[in-house]
Design brief:
Elements lengths: L18 H12 L3 H33 L4 H49 L3 H6 L2 H43 L1 H7 L3 H38 L1 H6 L3 H53 L5 H42 L21 E8 L8 E8 L4 E5 L6 H8 L7 E6 L2 E2 L5 H6 L1 E4 L10 H6 L7 H10 L3 H6 L17 H15 L3 E5 L7 H15 L3 E5 L3 H5 L3 E6 L2 E6 L1 H7 L2 H9 L11
Parallel strand pairs: 3-8, 3-9, 6-7, 7-8
Antiparallel strand pairs: 1-2, 1-4, 4-5, 9-10
Helix pairs in contact: 1-10, 2-3, 2-5, 2-10, 3-5, 3-10, 5-6, 5-10, 7-9, 7-10, 9-10, 14-16, 16-17
């Protein structure tokens, strides 16, 4: 079950609720590449064997060749030692590459699955979850898994096999000295465990504080204009400095833990080396060991500590990765709350008759928004929805596009319940021009073509001309190939609206929704696009929310919405003559018939 949103600045720290199942599922994805996964432990065996063989060869060099001045044997064994080191290096490189390849394939699939899971969710899902929270699953959680799969598993395999190889080599050389050397192992594991817990808490704090810094920075950059306008710059600086100091202090604390850990390991390593030197020297003096054996043991002990440190750190890393994977799988497995029926009705060309039959709707069951909405629109008619802010106008058009399902009643298009139709077939024949038009990164041409991807350049430019966008586009340095910037920041609000209208024109929809589409367009720009709007609305079933006066006056039907109810309906002239809420809105906002204000 989905466990709710994950805050953008929080990262998985605890254990997964079902670590075993999550680990098996993650491992199953890795086993989809069986050959490479089989190669990784085989190469780990080679790495461990070469790591254990090298100190043994060094001991032989001292005992058999240097002591007996055997130059030929010394040369031969030295060459073999170099080959062993080279083989071990090649095995580690190949092992890392193979594991890295597999991990990137798994991460690619996870990102794809997350994105696909998000794309198939309804608008209600996105109402409940913030975009930053969802983005963190795609970025932060996947990155945590990457740390484990990319290097963590390689280090674990190499560490375990290397440790076994070292222990075997030590006991084969001299079991007494091997037992003495192992005295520090329990102390080492205990020390690693303690420092791992301390590091976990310390670095959790650093991630929380850097997330706080990032969130604050993003907000302040986005709102710098407002901050300057309200003279809040100094306050924002002070607030950011406070968060930055907290991040600095957290990182200093984490550095202190790290700085203490490695000297502690060095101390234990020194103790182990001292045991080998002292007890080994005693064995040499008593003829129970050779000098070459002591040299080999010193090399083994130096290698012995690294795998234990890695395995200690890997445990915490694995818990975080499994918690991240569980969060990802929760999202991937989340059932879609609004789907097509098993056998959806496919309508290749919608005529455009839309009927609301006793429609009730609530985003939250405890707070109903619409109450028994009834009306019908014939093909080609224009319906204007007016009323106070929050009355339910946008909710009505969202239900037409089936962004949400009705709570009670039904909506039909050409006599078919929208819940019985394919959502793709509905939206393929529907165009929407929202109040705040969203433009994607890319060129102006790409954004207009978003309405119909197979449109030619000539068709794109014709749509822009009809929308009265062609003139300003051609004045830009690169014309239609000019980049729009993030969310269209290089363009004015009015220019973004013109491009959105051109996009809708290019799509040639059967049902059109204009959600305050010209509320941000100045008087001069509005006059330029009135003809385009008339053409856009012609022969299409259109829903117009709080549009400019000219469009409302020409609407076939005006619905006055208040508190989720249709309180008045009729034409513009009929409603004025009735002297109700619409007439009151008109008197307050349209006293001057030439004033192109919005009814909202």
């Amino acid at each position: 079950m989905f466990r709710g949103p994950l805050h953008v600045d929080s990262l998985p720290e605890g254990k997964a609720a079902n670590s075993g199942a999550v680990a098996r599922r993650l491992f199953a994805m890795m086993l989809d590449y069986p050959i490479r996964m089989a190669v990784v432990p085989l190469l780990g065996i080679v790495t461990g064997a070469t790591g254990a063989l090298a100190p043994y060869l060094i001991g032989r060099i001292f005992d058999q060749f240097i002591a007996h001045e055997d130059v030929a044997g010394l040369t031969r064994t030295t060459v073999i030692l170099v080959i062993v080191y080279a083989l071990g290096l090649l095995a580690r490189i190949t092992q890392s590459y193979q594991m890295g390849w597999v991990s990137q394939q798994v991460l690619y699939r996870l990102r794809t699955q997350i994105f696909q899971a998000l794309q198939r969710q309804s608008m209600a899902f996105f109402d409940r979850n913030e975009s930053g929270d969802l983005q963190s699953r795609l970025v932060n959680d996947v990155d945590v898994i990457n740390n484990l799969l990319g290097q963590g598993l390689v280090q674990a395999i190499a560490g375990v096999l290397g440790l076994l190889g070292i222990l075997v080599g030590m006991f084969l050389l001299n079991w007494r000295l091997a037992l003495a050397s192992c005295i520090v192992i329990p102390i080492m594991f205990f020390t690693t465990s303690v420092f791992s817990q301390m590091a976990r808490r310390a670095f959790r704090k650093t991630r929380e504080t850097i997330g706080d810094v990032s969130a604050n920075l993003q907000e302040d950059i986005a709102g710098v204009k407002v901050a300057q306008a309200f003279n809040r710059v100094e306050i924002n600086r002070s607030r950011f400095a406070e968060r930055n100091r907290a991040n600095r202090d957290a990182n200093v604390g984490a550095s202190a833990v790290t700085s203490a850990f490695f000297p502690a390991m060095d101390l234990l390593s020194t103790i182990a080396i001292s045991i080998v030197a002292g007890f080994g020297g005693y064995l040499v003096i008593n003829g129970q060991a050779s000098l070459g054996v002591i040299v080999s043991f010193l090399s083994y002990v130096q290698q012995f500590f690294w795998p234990i440190q890695q395995l200690g750190q890997l445990y915490t890393q694995a818990q975080s990765a499994l918690a991240a994977a569980e969060r990802i799988f929760d999202l991937v497995d989340l059932p879609v709350d609004m789907t097509d029926p098993p056998r959806p009705v496919q309508i290749d060309r919608i005529e455009g008759r839309v009927v609301f039959e006793n429609v009730h709707f609530a985003y939250d069951p405890s707070h109903p928004v619409l109450h028994g909405i009834d009306f019908s629109v014939e093909p080609g008619q224009t319906v204007a929805l007016v009323g106070p802010t929050g009355a339910g106008k946008t909710t009505i058009v969202n239900l037409v596009a089936r962004f949400y399902d009705v709570t009670e009643g039904r909506i039909t298009i050409d006599g078919v319940d929208v819940r019985d139709m394919s959502m793709a077939s509905i939206r393929r024949q529907m165009g929407i021009v929202p109040q705040n038009s969203f433009l994607f990164s890319g060129s102006i041409r790409d954004n207009i073509r978003y309405g119909r991807l197979d449109a030619s350049d000539a068709e794109v430019e014709e749509a822009a001309r009809l929308a009265r966008a062609d003139e300003f586009i051609r004045k830009l340095p690169r014309g239609y190939d000019s980049p729009v910037g993030e969310r269209g920041k290089n363009l004015s609000q009015g220019q973004r609206q013109l491009i959105a209208i051109a996009r809708a024109l290019l799509a040639d929809p059967r049902i059109l929704i204009l959600d305050e589409a010209t509320s941000s367009v100045d008087t001069r720009t509005e006059l330029l696009i009135q003809q385009a709007l008339e053409q856009l609305l012609r022969n299409r079933t259109s829903f117009v929310i709080a549009h400019r006066l000219s469009t409302i006056r020409n609407a076939d039907l005006v619905l006055v919405i208040n508190d989720g109810l249709i309180v008045e309906r009729g034409t513009h002239q009929e409603l004025l003559a009735r002297g109700g809420l619409y007439a009151d809105l008109y008197r307050r906002q349209f006293r001057d018939l030439g004033e192109p204000s919005a009814v909202s």
